[in-house]
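Bumping with the actual sequence this time:
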Amino acid sequence: MSKLLAIAAQRKIDVDEAKAAGGEGTVENLLKKADELEKEFGKPQSLYDAIIKHWETNDNMAIAAEFKRASPSKGEIATHLDAGEQAKIYANGGAAVVSVLTEPKWFKGSLEDMLTVRKALEAIPQTSQRALVLRKDFVMDEYQLFEARAFGADTVLLIVAILEKELLKSLLEKARELGMEPLVEVACEEEMNVALDVGAKVIGVNNRNLHTFKVDMTTTTRMVDVARNRGAISGDRSRGVLVIALSGIKTRDDVVKYEKHGDVSGVLIGETLMRAKDPREMIQNLIGATELRQLTRVKICGIKDASSALVAAKAGADFIGIIFVKKSKRYATVEEAKSIVKTIREFREKDDKVEIHPPTKKGDWYSSWADTIGQSCDGQGRPLVVGVFMNQPIEEVNKLAMEVGIDMIQLHGDETLEDEAQCSLPVIRVVHVDVDSKASSHAVKENDLTAGPAASVLLDSSVKGGGSGGTGKVFDWTIAKKVAIPVILAGGLTPENVAEAVSVAQPWGVDVASGTESSPGVKDHEKIRAFIRNAKKN
């Protein structure tokens, strides 16, 4: 049984139990509660009309910002957040809709979260249209529609994949009777045709396959074309169906692709906003109103097991480093590396390695590459998996990279520019900086920073007679600040000093190995979380 069907089966049990329990959960009492809410706050707003009005007023993509504490694919996301406070941030950022997960087991949501969101949105002084409240759940019974009205929803999600056509049509009509224009979710052409057949006016296209949980961002544009071919979209929003892109949208670039294709009226964003340092700023960036401040990239290196890799990914790491140097205490076998890569691909919902193409725009070599790599991290590629090698034959490096399925190569020894050029994946060049060097000295030589073939430069501490990497020693961070290219800072970083290091060196990224360990080669999960949190706080 797929995860979707498992969740749907559980929700049917939940609904049957709620109906049988009686008390405040009877239909009569739910309708009474809905009437009381309506007297206090007014009738539900139409999702269709609200999106039309949004475009007439703002002429930009309508953002449906989601409150989601957890998910089946990512586990816990932000269980500590207050639903009402998060909703106010979303609305003040410009969200047209606040989507609230109310499924309790896998998403850790509740009807109380949704009511809290509605009350919080009503409390905001209204200078324009209030953000609508969407109940996002696995609705299969009209009882859930009564619950939605009683707990503040303006609209509800109806998922075609779990509903027979006649039941879908019945729920659609009942929702409208209750004053709610539903968002009807589809994920393929067959489901799109069903949604159009039953008269859906607002259709959400899920880029995530709910049976496999993999993401394909072209699903939305393909479904738009289906609607166009059926004449359901005419170019005038007020005369046809509205399409909303669901799942996988993380960056302004994702939104721009839908804007260019046309006839996509909105996007729903969940996990990205729940994890965002400043959700309001992110919403403004998604609609093209502001540029997003760049947070420091973080690489957790020396990972040997899949569980530590997953902890790092969930905490917000941009890179996972796997060391293929046999003499290292952090050496990972091919099988361990494959397990890590498999886990990361499942986390980022992509079946293969990330294709990082060379920058197309002209400009500084390393700055352009930093932008390109960053876009991969911010999109569907986070975290990228980096294989670390030291003075190994490049043929061996490329063969191992292909076998394991890593995304980038780090050359940590005395490799040459010719070696870099022969690598089959983008390369991180390591420059060894003596811990006794001072910023006033030539600690980093000009030829260490040659533009290319490497895509990025990492500065790591070295100790005379003791090598480089995993030394636990720091070098003068102002050396990194004086280097006029985006660099990754490594060497002696810990959860306790990384914030200061970022403030002083102002690097593009930071790299840690020993600083997140309980003993050599053994990762401490809480240290991983703390390191990432502190590195990205500035």
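The tokens above came from a reply further down the thread. The two ends are 45 Å apart (CA to CA).
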